Amino acid sequence: MRPARYAAFVCVAALALSGCAQQSPAVAAYIGDVTFTQRSVDAIFDDARTAFEADQAKLVTGTAAAPGEQLERPSLPITRRHVVDLLLTLDLGHRVADARGLTPTRPEVPAELIESVLGVPAETRYVALYQEWYRLYDTLQDEVAPAEVTDDRMMTVYDALVDAHAIDPGLSAPVVREQFGGGEFAALPLTVSDLLRDEAEKAGTVVNPKYLPVAVPMIASANNQSFPYRMPYLQAGTVVTTS
């Protein structure tokens, strides 16, 4: 049985985020006794936005426009939801690795490479956290047996890729299996999302509803191109265990 003090904390966390989320926006999520504040989410997002806008300003300065033409600036390709995804996934991923005695050993993916895929400047805190997550993700996928891929579960990965415009929409499960190697592309994303969901339940995780569903930051590759996508793993308003 869990200590009474911990159980009381979980109850308070659940009330704070599920019942009063709009009136109490200072917290983005809890994992056990770890608090992710809205301020920390804003700081990471604002850092990315500032660097991105500075880069875009330089590009516009060096680009000639026709008389009367205004050059349209692209917008930052991430939101605060992406920041929360990354913070929670990284924390839960480290808990999973620690519980299994796993230590990342692969070299870190260069920040410039991540920038080329995500569209977020390499020098930002967001990219640094993504580097840490991707290295941890490689460790988890190497050390854990792949999940069973049923049609329904395969299609959840397929739908996530469709949402990211990384794959053609409108395909049936048999067609997806036929065109994409029997659905093996879905095994590792499902494995990692299952591990994170189980750890979230074990740790006592509560998420501000405005950031649901929480998703694993993923990268898919096809035709010599890479695409970021979100693989949801926490759907409910709160995920809290009581046993």
The secondary-structure element order is: HEEHHHHHHHEEEE
C-alpha-based Rg, rounded: 20 Å
Lateral strand order in the biggest sheet: 2-1-3-6
- How many helices? 8
Structural class: alpha+beta
CATH class identity: Mainly Alpha
Shape-level CATH architecture: Orthogonal Bundle
Unreliable residue stretches = 1-16, 18-24, 239-243
Beta-sheet strand percentage? 5-15%
Let me know the average pLDDT: 84
Count of beta strands: 6
Largest sheet: 4 strands, antiparallel
Signal peptide: 1-28
Keywords: Signal
Description of the structure:
The chain has a single domain, classed as Orthogonal Bundle (Triger factor/SurA peptide-binding fold), CATH 1.10.4030. Helices cover 51% and strands 14% of the residues. It contains eight helices and six strands; from the N terminus they run αββαααααααββββ. Strands 2-1-3-6 form a four-stranded antiparallel sheet, with helices on both faces. Strands 4-5 form a two-stranded antiparallel ribbon. Helix 2 (38-61) packs across helix 3 (80-99), helix 3 (80-99) crosses helix 8 (187-203) and helix 6 crosses helix 7 (173-179).
